[in-house]
Structure formats: C-alpha cells, structure tokens
C-alpha cells in the first residue's frame, strides 16, 4: 500500500524541487486533471514502460521535426529522403525505450507510423519550400513579478508568418470545439512564450492532428491570437498549481480517464 504523507525520505524536499523547476502546460494540465497522477509522476517519479501508441506518436513527431528542420536548412524534405531516417530512428528509440510488442505487432505499428508520416507530407497545408521561423524551440518566460515559477515550453513549429503549429497524433477524429477547449492552456502558454522570445504578437495557431484511422487523415484546427482573458486564466492556473503543490494536495480525480491511466494499480493502493 502507498501511503501519502508530508514526510519524504529524499534529501531534497520534492515540493521545493517542483516549485523551483519551470512549469509547463503539460504539467499544469496533468496537475489539474488528477493531482494524484501528478504525484506519482513528478514526486515519486514512477516510470512506466513505453506503450505502443506512445512509441508511434513519438516516432511520428520526430519525423515531422526532421521534416521541418530539413526545410529550414534547405535540404530535401520528401518521403524518399526521410525513409532511411525513419528506419534508423525507430530502431534507436526502441533501444533506448523498449516496447513490449506481441509477435508481428512491431511491423504493423511501424507501418502505421510511416503511413501517418506519408499522409502528412501529402496533405500538409504548409508549402514544402516555406522556411520555418523556428523548429522545436524551447522558450522560458519569467513570471517572478507574479510570484510564480518560470514558464517553459517547446514549440513544435513556428511558420514564417508567425503562426504557431503543434503536431498531435490521435486515434479518433477530433472535434474542433473540444480540441480548442482542451488545448487552450497549452496554446496560451505558447503564445505568451512566443511574445516573450520575439517581442511580437503571434499571428495565430494551428493544431495538426494526424488521425490513426484505417485510412490515415489530417485534421487542422485553427485558433486566433490569445486574448488578455486567456492570459489571466493561465496565470490563475499556475497560481492554483503552486498553492496545491505547497499544500501537498494529491487528491485523486476518478473518472473515465482512469481506464487508460498507467498508474491505475498504484492508485488503488493509496492510503490518503
């Protein structure tokens, strides 16, 4: 049984450590969706094997990053030029993070990942000769004037016109209204970080969902520049995060999401 209490065996208090680290949209979303899951991942630092779906998603993301980098460098960025890089990345990532494939599953999942990449290269709204402004850009923003930790994010792609693009893989076709609502915190963080880095206002956002259907497809959802109201919501979310971590509030949030949670067994054994 896992007992949650304020005493910790680590020489470094995990609360102080977490509050000293930059906060990201993913940390905020996890904390506000289930504080106990946040506790397992960031306080106890429990690691789990990489799932097949996560491996496919990471591989696809890496290929789109490579595609963007090649366009930025003026190098060939078609499917033929990326295939060997794809094969190499697949094998190297499995060496670093092994996946428990059943017999024959690895070949199927690898084909699924490459099919998503090929589909994207065919259907992307981004011209192949458009040079990006930034690729996989890590940006920090100082929020100390608000008494808050630094905000950090890694932006997948910034187009030449100042539009921010985020790549996602999905098992189902996303609903545009729900997608924008679920990702509002992330987009707001990216917009604030972009302004911090450039001193300019972003021109908007695009969420590029690569859907893992029988016939893969691309769904693009657009969002305008962030508003002052959205920035205030982000600051409020960070304030709530800081307050909850300081109080060591690791209350679970049971719901439909529990069925796919990697910490399901640990959660059942918790004594609050």
E-strand count? 7
Sequence of strands across the biggest β-sheet: 2-3-4-5-6
CATH class of the domain at 134-236: Alpha Beta
Q: Which geometry do the CA atoms define?
A: globular
Number of helices: 10
End-to-end gap: 10 Å
CATH topology of the domain at 134-236: Lambda Exonuclease, Chain A
- Unreliable stretches, pLDDT < 50, 5 or more residues? none
Measured on Cα atoms, how large is the radius of gyration?
A: 20 Å
**String of helices and strands:** EHHHHHHEEEHHEEHHE
For the record, the CATH architecture of the domain at 134-236 stands as: Alpha-Beta Complex
Helix/sheet category: alpha/beta
**What is the mean pLDDT?**
93
The profile of the biggest β sheet is: 5 strands, mixed
Brief overview, please?
By secondary structure, this protein is of the alpha/beta class. It has ten helices and seven strands. It has a domain at 134-236: Alpha-Beta Complex (Lambda Exonuclease, Chain A).
Structure characteristics:
272 residues, alpha/beta, Lambda Exonuclease, Chain A, five-stranded mixed sheet, two-stranded parallel sheet, 10 helices, globular
């Amino acid at each position: 049984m896992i007992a949650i209490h304020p005493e910790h065996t680590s020489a470094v208090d995990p609360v102080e450590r977490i509050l000293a680290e930059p906060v990201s949209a993913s940390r905020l979303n996890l904390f506000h969706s289930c504080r106990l899951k946040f506790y397992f991942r960031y306080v106890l630092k429990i690691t789990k094997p990489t799932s097949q779906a996560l491996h496919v998603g990471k591989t696809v993301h890496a290929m789109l990053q490579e595609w963007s980098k090649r366009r930025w460098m003026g190098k060939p960025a078609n499917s033929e030029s990326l295939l060997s890089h794809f094969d190499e990345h697949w094998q190297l990532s499995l060496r670093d993070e092994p996946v428990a494939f059943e017999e024959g599953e690895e070949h199927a999942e690898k084909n699924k990942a490459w099919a998503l990449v090929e589909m994207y290269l065919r259907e992307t709204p981004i011209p192949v000769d458009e040079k990006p402004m930034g690729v996989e850009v890590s940006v920090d923003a100082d929020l100390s004037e608000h008494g808050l930790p630094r905000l950090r994010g890694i932006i997948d792609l910034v187009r030449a016109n100042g539009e921010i693009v985020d790549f996602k893989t999905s098992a189902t076709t996303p609903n545009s209204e729900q997608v924008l609502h679920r990702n509002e915190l992330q987009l707001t963080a990216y917009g604030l970080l972009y302004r911090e880095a450039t001193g300019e206002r972003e021109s908007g956002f695009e969420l590029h969902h690569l859907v893992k259907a029988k016939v893969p497809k691309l769904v693009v959802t657009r969002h305008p520049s962030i508003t002052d109201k959205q920035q205030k919501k982000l600051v409020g979310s960070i304030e709530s995060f800081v307050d909850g971590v300081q109080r060591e509030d690791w209350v679970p949030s049971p719901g439909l999401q529990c069925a796919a949670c990697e910490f399901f067994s640990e959660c059942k054994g918790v004594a609050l």
